[in-house]
Amino acid sequence: MDSIFSWLIVNILCLPRYGYDVYDRVWRPNNYYDYVNTSLRIYSQSHNEYQPPSIVMSTAATPRNDSSPLVITWEAENATSEYYIYMHFAEVEKLNANQSRSFNITINGNHFFGPVLPPYLSTYTVYSQSALMMAKKYEVSIFKTESSTLPPILNAVEIYSVKNLLQSETDQQDVDTITKIKSTYGLKRNWQGDPCVPQAYSWEGLTCSYDRYNPPRIISLNLSSSGLTGEISADISNLVMLKYLDLSDNCLIGSVPYFLSQMEDLMVLLGENSKKKNIAVPIVASFCGLFILSLTIAVIMWVLRRTTQQEKTKDMESHLQNQPVESIQLQRQLTYSDVLRITNNFEKILGKGGFGTVYYGCIDNTHVAVKVKLLMRVHHRNLTTLVGYCYDGTNMGLIYEYMANGDLKPHLSGENKNILSWETRLQIAMDAAQGLEYLHHGCKPPIIHRDVKTANILLNEKLRAKLADFGLSKIFPTDTGTHMSSIVAGTYGYLDPEYFTTHRLTEKTDVYSFGVVLLEIITNQPVIQNSDEMTHIRDWVSFMLAERDIKNIVDPRLRGNYNINSVRKAIDIAMYCVSLTPSKRPTMDQVVAELKECLATELAQMKEGCQGETKDSNDQITILQPR
Prior knowledge:
Elements: E1 2-8, E2 28-29, E3 34-37, H1 54-57, E4 59-62, E5 70-75, E6 82-89, E7 103-107, E8 110-116, E9 124-127, E10 132-133, E11 137-144, E12 156-161, H2 172-185, E13 206-209, E14 217-222, E15 229-230, E16 244-246, E17 251-252, E18 268-270, H3 289-304, H4 309-320, H5 325-329, E19 333-334, H6 336-342, E20 349-353, E21 356-363, E22 366-371, E23 386-392, E24 395-401, H7 422-442, E25 447-448, E26 457-459, E27 465-467, E28 474-475, E29 484-485, H8 497-502, E30 504-505, H9 507-523, H10 537-546, H11 564-577, H12 588-607
Helix pairs in contact: 7-9, 7-12, 9-11, 11-12
Subcellular location: Membrane
Transmembrane segments: 279-304
GO molecular function, one term: ATP binding
């Protein structure tokens, strides 16, 4: 079945599915009605198999006129269309002894169900047990009974149309294999139904091949960051059409199994590195340009089919000759023992993320950070610099510059006593924006970072920022138009809702994430509020702007030491970046230009000796409407 309606009442940011909804539904807002709500939790898990999330059920629609019904209408797609409806109710108001709420439900004038007395803070679902059919238009009316003192309510509704799938089911061998892999590794993913069918709802992490004559086959499997342990499962070899396999960021042990070399269609294998010598051989986790792609494939051949160190070294040197001169000059080849010495046997961990583990090291009295996967050919003052690499038999690693002040996230923490000034925050934001601008417009083809967040913005000893962690980056082919399809990756809260829903990856995906970062820098608020509502920072700022309360948006620890016009402009930039409509978001070069103006405004006031405006400027605030 295909969902044609699935909505809640209050207009909030489109909800991320996982973490809220066990069935991975996307709940869309509807604002045609008045509503009542509660901050208390609505319970459904223990007694309601449909389990609409509490955050959905905590708001209920009511008619604007108490004596009027709530009405839902839709037109049939064709004369043979069939529909199923699920209506979810929960009382969100604590009723007094003299109050009551009950209502009946009709469909196209015929009694459907009732009376309904919605239970307090508990979900009650009314649904059609057989398909609704043979009508050109459907009208569902919910109206109060004669004895009810309160109008009817509706918290959420789902309406599904029946779809006859003409496409063949996934090849049974692939179904059995992927099901066994899920069981072997204990994967906690929402893998239900057919892996490849319908095509728009294939399982997360899978890509399938489709044609009109043969059943769909699994051709790509992404199990990165899935908590895999043990050895690489031999069941993978039964996915005989597999072309792409990503096992990075797991805890697999043992050598790369021989069966992978016998998979005729397998072209790209992504693995991981570790200080343990017996772990799967590391393979590059993301690419920049055709050189790195060809190097990745070559490394797989070494791991699976080459036998002598002399052949490996010769091939490595041959590929390095294909790099630009300036890139070669930045690199130093190190042995594995060199890396052990530099990092003091991997003694100090600087951080962990989508890129793997980063270790502290020292080369010739120079601080460095040692990564274990990413190999990039990009160079920019606002991107972390690759200063060396290690290729020693089955051990590979990269050496990056050391950033003395770590990442930005703890500097925005309320526990940090060293408060970043407004000028410093603007400079950090502009540095990060310039790094993204280079990836989008300075790399050929462009690169989309996909994991822009405060933890991936590193600060040097002068608090100048550089963008880090390209573990999730994607090359953006220039011949694919304005977007490309991609398995969703990123960090919750920073993730573009449009990308999450449609898998359409564009440069504007990074712009949204940067907008969230900029709001963090301005407000010092968490990306997701730790409350029952789980309010996103975008919605919190929107609410404050609607209340014309701009001063309480800014981090109170700044104590007014900023130019109010500079702050307004920065908030405006951020809110445009987090627009829910990608076409309304600016490009990163536009963001850089606007931030430069913000910084210039702030510096001009500092030059005049001002310490920030303290007068009430609310009458001059431009209210940003939600987009």
